[in-house]
Amino acid sequence: METFASRFLSDSNNKAFDNNHRAIINYNISRYNIAVTKGLQKFRDLEKASEAAALVKHKVLENLDNYLQNFEKRFSENGGSVIWAHDAGDALESIIKILKENNVGMVVKSKSMTTEELELVPYLEANGVEAIETDLGEYIVQISGDKPYHIVTPVMHRSAEDIAGIYHKKFGLSSDSNPAEITSFTRDVLRQKFINAGAGITGANFLIAETGSVVLTENEGNGVMSMSWPPIHIVIAGIEKILPSLDDLGLFLPLLSTHGTGQSLTAYNSIVSGPGRSSGNSGRAQIYVILLDNGRTDLLGVVPQRRALSCIRCGACLNACPVYRNIGGHSYGAVYSGPIGAVITPHLKNFDHYKHLSYASSLCGKCSEVCPLKINLHKLILHNRNYAVKHGYYPKIEKTSMFLWKKAMLNRSLVDKPPYAIKNFLFKKAVGKIWGKRRSAPNLKPNSFATTWKKHKS
Ligand code: SF4
User: Fold this and answer.
1) How many CA atoms lie within 13 A of 405 on its CB side?
2) Which of 152, 210, 277, 418 shows a CA-CA span of 20 to 30 A to 3?
């Protein structure tokens, strides 16, 4: 029977030995590395900036309930509506209700991992509402029936030629169209969608508690248009997105942009604090913020893994991770991949189904080193493994094997006595599967180290 873990293993295995995939990812990540190394030099003291940001987020997580209530109060005073969604089902119901009440037949949406959590686009389509992704990468994902590969760059796994092929098949563009031609074509298609859409749906990079504001940062301008062209704007934001005040943006926006793409600042940074005022031209008629829990409160209750809720989704840990670089984003089988996904996915979804992600790590610590929020990801991965054991999320066979292994290891004669051939047989039986098909388990030496050492000394 296929399980989440067995699917993960087989998908990872396929990707890790796919040379084409390896070449594209290595090329894209090496370009990312050059840009980010350059971008980070602009910080006078990156270490201090990261420490300060980590402290702000620590404060937020310790007082999340107050900050969220403050946000709700301020945003409502500004004329917006706040909806609390316990899970994906709640959020989807609220969205479709707003759309149906306003006879919306088509929505434009900007890039948002939170909406991926909800599987929003297929849900809207199934309910008779056309939903168009307007971020170029997400648009390519949508027209190719794919899933986002990376939390910042959804089509990182595609080459320019692949993308030209998709446009050729879908729209009849020349199969050797260059990126400029493809972008220009997409812009023309999307412009009409922006004009005709009845609502725009976006995520939020930050929510400001002090002013009741939603902050959206992006590079293409599609987010600004999604939130400002249609008459209704719906924001879907995880409850952890809170920052105390607008002043914090001076720290968080550059940290996010440099670690995400190497830019000093992302091209478009929008702050929306409510619907349009009486002048009638400075905002949408209706604006809703859906505050999504979807497992976050459960994660908040798990110490120290709750620290992962400080994440600002810059993607740096994914690019740094040797496992991610080999198995790619899709193998994780979850919205959040890489080291941050390995920490949060088991808690946000089903721990038993997704615990294997916490074992997909070399524990090299590179992810923790690059994280701008100083999240100790590799240690949290270890804490997840500990959590799995403490809560009984492991097969009985593992418990028995560990018991026997411990017994054997604590008894020298049990290790030394059995004949070499039997020991080798047992060893290969035990580790053969783990070793994988592509390498053979090593042969044990006829004599143990202890025996060899004794002989050597005598
Ligand atoms: S865990 Fe850190 S490095 Fe990874 S995406 Fe979040 S903020 Fe970025």
Assistant:
1) 9
2) 152
pLDDT (mean) for 309-314? 98
Q: Which atom of ligand 1 is nearest to the CA of 308?
A: 1
The domain in which residue 446 lies consists of 397-457
The total number of structural domains in the chain stands at 3
Question: 406 C-alpha to center of ligand 1: Å?
Answer: 37
Is the Cβ–Cβ distance between 154 and 135 less than 8 Å? yes
Query: Closest by alpha carbon to 80, among 250, 213, 266, 242?
Result: 213
pLDDT at 283: 59
Q: Are residues 186 and 115 in the same domain?
A: yes
Residues 28 and 7 in one domain: yes
Same domain, 226 and 249: yes
Token pair 């042969």 in the structure block, residue: 443
Question: Could you tell which of 343, 371, 380, 384 is best to mutate to test the pocket of ligand 1, judged by most ligand atoms within 8 Å of the CB?
Answer: 371
Atom of ligand 1 nearest to the CA of 312: 7
The model's pLDDT over 97-152, given as tens digits with 9 standing for 90+, comes to 999 999 999 999 999 999 999 999 999 999 999 999 999 999 999 999 999 999 99
Under 8 Å between Cβ of 10 and 228: no
Domain boundary among 261, 294, 327: 294
Task: Look at residue 160 and tell me if it is in a domain.
Answer: yes
Report the residue among 58, 217, 373 best suited for mutation to probe ligand 1: largest number of ligand atoms under 8 A from its CB: 373
Residues with CB under 6 A from ligand 1: 259, 311-317, 340, 370-373, 375, 377
Under a CB-based contact definition with an 8 Å cutoff, are residues 210 and 70 in contact? yes
If one residue of 317, 318, 335 were mutated to test the ligand 1 pocket, choosing by the most ligand atoms within 8 A of its CB, it would be 317
Rounded average pLDDT over 208-214: 98
Count of H-run helices and E-run strands, the chain: 23, 10
Cα 234 to ligand 1 centre (Å): 26
